[in-house]
């Protein structure tokens, strides 16, 4: 009985090439080959910022208002690109605070949408 179990042992259908080995050193980070040209050109500054933010993220005293004041009023820098916030609470509150639901909205959800909240009472 054991001979038939050994003979009919399951063999995986996937075949890997080469030996099983882990790389001895980590690879150097780089932009994706299909990344846009502006990312490829500015990747060195991005990785430097990423390394510095990951090492000082616990002691960071960054706030959205101080970051916005560095670029003037509003939440867009001079390049008109939106900010990337590492933590959600660094973003303006309208992006992460929930709005309160009214009783009408709660009733519409609880009824499964059977009541239309757009019509009057």
TrEMBL record:
It holds the Pfam family Kgd4-YMR31. GO terms for cellular component: mitochondrion. It is found in: Mitochondrion. Keywords: Mitochondrion. GO terms for biological process: 2-oxoglutarate metabolic process. Residues 18-37, 49-69 are annotated as: Disordered. InterPro entries: Kgd4/YMR-31. The keyword Mitochondrion applies. Belongs to the alpha-ketoglutarate dehydrogenase component 4 family. This is Uncharacterized protein. It comes from Cutaneotrichosporon oleaginosum.
């Amino acid at each position: 009985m054991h001979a038939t179990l050994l003979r009919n042992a399951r063999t995986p259908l996937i075949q890997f090439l080469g030996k099983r080995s882990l790389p001895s050193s980590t690879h150097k980070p780089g932009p994706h080959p299909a990344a846009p040209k502006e990312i490829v050109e500015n990747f060195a500054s991005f990785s430097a910022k990423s390394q510095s933010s990951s090492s000082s993220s616990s002691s960071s005293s960054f706030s959205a208002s101080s970051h916005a004041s560095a670029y003037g009023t509003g939440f867009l820098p001079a390049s008109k690109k939106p900010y990337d916030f590492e933590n959600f609470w660094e973003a303006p509150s309208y992006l992460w605070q929930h709005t309160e639901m009214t009783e009408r909205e709660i009733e519409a959800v609880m009824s499964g949408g059977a009541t239309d909240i757009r019509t009057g009472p």
